[in-house]
Fold this protein.
Amino acid sequence: MGTSRCRLLVGVVVGMAIAWAWVVAGSAVAGEPGKVGVPAKRPADGKKLRIVVFGAHPDDAEIRAGGTGALWAAQGHHVQLVSVTNGDIGHSQIFGPELARRRKAEAQAASKCLGTHSRVLDIHDGELEPTLANRKEITRVVREWQADIVIGHRPNDYHPDHRYVGVLMQDSAYMVTVPFFCPETPYLTSNPLFLYSEDGFQRPNPFRPDVVVAIDEVIDRKVKALVDMESQFVEGGANGPFPKTEAERARRRPQVAEGFRNRCAAVANRYRAKLIELYGEERGKQVRYAEAFEFCEYGRRPGREELNRWFPFFPK
Ligand SMILES: [Zn+2]
C-alpha cells in the first residue's frame, strides 16, 4: 500500500473513533445527551452556612462532629448529619430492616437533641463500595444541601465503610461543581470546603488538626445524644456484649457517657497547641472538650478570615 493511501486510511479510522467517542460521551450524561445542569440557587437565608457531615453508619457523624454541628445549629446554620449506610448489621441480636429502622430512629433522635438534621441513605452496612453510582449519590447529597462545608472520614480507617466514605467524599469534591455531571441535580457554583473528621490512625499519614473546635458548652447534649443511641453503645453494637439485665443496661449508661467525655477530652489535650493558636493562650488552655478536623486539599482552601466566618466560634 502506498504512503498516501495508508495516511488516508489512518485518517478515516481516527475520524470514526472520534465520532464514536463523541456519541458515547453524549449518551453518558444521565441518558440525556448534551443536557447541561443548572446552577443551584442559594436559599433565602443565604448568609447562613450549610454543612453536610458524612459518617459511614448511624452514629459516626454524631461521634465526630455532633458537638460542632450543635454549635453551628445554635447560631442558625443548617447542619445535616448523613449516614451513608443504613447500619443494618450493627448489632449482636437483631439485623436487617428491623435494625435499620431502629438506627434511623436513633439518628433522628440524636439530631433532635443536637439541633441538626438527619439523613440515612439506604445502602447495606458493611457493603459500601466506591462505585460510580455512589459517587453520584454523594454528589447529589452535597448539591441538594447546597453545602459550604462537607465533612467525612479519612480514606484510611479500620472499617471499609469508613474508608469508602472518605474516597467517595474525595471523589465528589470538585465534581459537585461540574454542570454536565449529574445534570438532573443543580450544581454548586463554588467548591465547598472539604474536611476530614478526626481519627487515630497513623499510616500512611497521621491526622493533622487544621481546625480544632471547643465543644464545652454543648458536651452534655452531645453525650446525651450518643448514650441514647442505645443499640450501639449501651447494647454494644455488632460485637456486644448485649446487656443481660435491665440493671446492667442502667449501669452502662453512665459508663458510656464517661467514655465519650474522655474521648472528647483526649482530643482537646492532644491538639492543645492548635486550640491555643485558634482561641488564644488563656481560653485555649481552659478548653476541656474538643472535636478536630483536617483540610482535604481537593476542595476550597480557606484563609484565616474565611475560616473565622465558617467556624464562627473563635475569638476575633
Ligand atoms: Zn462506623
Summary: The chain has a mean pLDDT of 91. Residues 50-214+291-310 form a domain with the Rossmann fold fold (CATH 3.40.50.10320).
